Amino acid sequence: MSRRFITIWFRHLVTDRIMLRKPELKGLPFVVAVQERGRKVITAASAAAQALGIDYGMVVADARATLPSLQVFDEDPQLAEKLLHALAIWCLRYTPEIAVDPPDGLILDVSGCAYLWGGERPYLKEIVTKLRSAGYDVRAAIADTIGTAWAVSHYGQVSPIVEPGALLDALLPLPPAALRLEQPILERMHKLGLYRINSFISMPRLTLRRRFGQLLLDRLDQALGRSQEIIELIRPVELYQERLPCLEPIRTATGIEIALRRLLEVLCLRLQREQKGLRAAVFKGFRIDGNIQQIEIGTNRPTRNVEHLFKLFELKISTITPALGIEVFILEAPVVEDLSQVQDSLWNTGAGHQAGVANLLDRLAGRLGMGAIRRYLPDEHYWPERSFRLAASLEEKPAADWRLDRPRPICLLSKPELIEVTAPIPDYPPMLFIYKGKIHKVIKADGPERIEREWWLENGLHRDYYAVEDEQGARYWIFRLGHYDEHKPEWFIHGVFA
């Protein structure tokens, strides 16, 4: 399948935006200007101003000599870039591969996308119609190469759709400027009477290079597909992504659920063919007004079970606000892992306790958030804060065993908390301690257990740990920091036993 590109030219990008914010300017001549060398130079002109001969590059003083009532706005140097990026994000509903083409264009790689809208003609028409209805004066074209699509969108007078293989025919009647050449090159061509591409394209390449430089040959090769043109996408394309455009905007929860299920079925079928399962998924809805609604889920282990994934998404569908309607749905799987047929059978048959545990954890995480549920594995460190690590999945195996020869609390505080202690010296356990304003009288104690710092990681004092029990039967893990000396040592609580 040949690649297909759409280039979109916003003919009055900045002035269109100004009119959207100030509707009273519609149909009036106005310009945007910047201060250069003590004078104001026009950088953008409205369509009404251009109709009066006022255009880019003119000095404001000269323009006002022609039209004294001309309105002038100061240029925002970041506005065009911000507008193009926002419009590119809006166009993600039509293709995942979009690049910004400064100063006033977008490039869309639409290979394999047009069939979702019934063909290239309705596909291109919808994009242009939506942008024009949003208030932007645009021209667009579709072709096998970026160069030819750009040329036709800017200078074409016939059809905006260049049929596959018809690149040369589309380029021949266009002016040299359609090849995106620099102004000095265009001026030399005009002096020689080369006003159309067909007047020089058959000349020997050596002659063209000698007279006009390598850029002309490079642009010709790019436009004719002889060399590839690299574009920088605004957002990396997810490898696992499915799209569903809607004939009519979707406004109901039932419609959203139907779209979600269809996308899940297609995505999971692909994952099954490739022996993979997803660990995270994102469901997006592109609204008519340009807003993007999005919900996300995560799983504790790879899965491609449609029903299970649908139930996880179902918990969050109520957060989607369709407003006037959603016209395109996208399902992405940014995290995908290998999944064997044996693992998959656990989901399909319900056999094995691990499948039930994973199912339950996923649904709890869907309600409480992925950060609310954690699984820990032992790590090869004696220092308590480093003696465990967060597991990446439910199936990850520990590299070491939990230490069982010494008592360890079921709940370890993320950071030890300072307590007040009354204790005999030098190495006796405390008789009582005060924690959060409450006095705990110690009736049983075990220790001390000395834990030295891992000097290859950090410096500091050792800890002497005690497992103590108060008069209420509650058991705590406390420690003294460092040796007794002329200063009173500090005591901390670090955990609670079951």
UniProtKB/TrEMBL annotation:
Gene Ontology biological process terms from the UniProt entry: DNA repair
Domain of life: Bacteria
Keyword Calcium: no
Pfam families reported for this sequence: IMS
UmuC domain mapped to chain residues: 21-72
CDD domains per record: PolY_like (cd03468)
InterPro entries linked to this entry: DNA/RNA_pol_sf, SulA_CellDiv_inhibitor, UmuC
Keyword tags: DNA damage
Protein known as: DNA polymerase Y family protein
